[in-house]
Amino acid sequence: MEMTFKVKLNSTLSETGHIKAGTPEESILIPIFYTVYSADFSMNDHITNCFFADDTAILAQGSTTKFVIRTLQRGLIEIEEWCTLWRVAINTDKTRSVMFRKGHPKNNLQSLTFFEEDLSWDKEIKYLGLILDSKLTFRNHIKYNTDKFWAKVRVIIRHLIGRKSPLFLNNKVLLFKQILPPILTYVSQIWGLAVKSHLKKVQIIQNKILRIMTNSPWYIRNDVIHKDLKLESTENHIQVLSRKFFQQITRNNNPILEQLNFTNNNFIYPFSYATTKFTLELKPP
């Protein structure tokens, strides 16, 4: 298949150019070609490679920070060699490093070097829309989600689900379910184990929106509103999402997923959340 292009500047159109390499955007061949292209990416027994399209992360763990830094630096050197071999350009300005650990280091951590540039240790990073802080409290991610939630609410609240909206309550609830909870609970399978004080902030936001939708007076309890609208609390909703997510992974026959280890150290539980509240039986309606 021959691909061509033209450039238009004001009313002037250039001659036809020919694209001799690459694939059309959104082509079904792109994932296959990318998998083949990155098949020989640097592998290390002490490093876990995480790929999602062109977003790549490497993870290392150890009992000391020196071991982790030394392992990561060795992995970065191997990545440099692979990128140089296949002429892959890396934007070092977007490359970040973070150390997940308890407590605070007594001394400053040694910087990592990548393509002759030092990588400073950040307190948090954003990967695939999830903000990971060094203590894994997920406080900043929940704040980011709530801010994004309110930005979306301002667009639809006045005319669609607000107090003066002409829509019936059933339609308001339907719009609420389809648009707003997915924003609040994005990747909640990961941050759902945050402390209750952080999770409570998410529930407070949902309470406010439901009160606006129903125009409820102050003396109506929030749990009564949830029950009348047949809506779950955010905590219960996160539990259901997490349970389904990890159960689907363990039941999936995909050979790539079978290579992943979702058991804990004693290899008894089928996935990492098996000892938490997320594995409790679903409550009857």
From TrEMBL:
The protein's UniProt keywords, in alphabetical order, are: Nucleotidyltransferase, RNA-directed DNA polymerase, Transferase
Q: Which residues form the Reverse transcriptase domain?
A: 42-131
The GO terms this record gives for MF are: RNA-directed DNA polymerase activity
- InterPro entries in the cross-refs: RT_dom
Q: Which PANTHER family match?
A: REVERSE TRANSCRIPTASE DOMAIN-CONTAINING PROTEIN
Which protein is depicted?
A: RNA-directed DNA polymerase from mobile element jockey
The gene designation is jockeypol_26
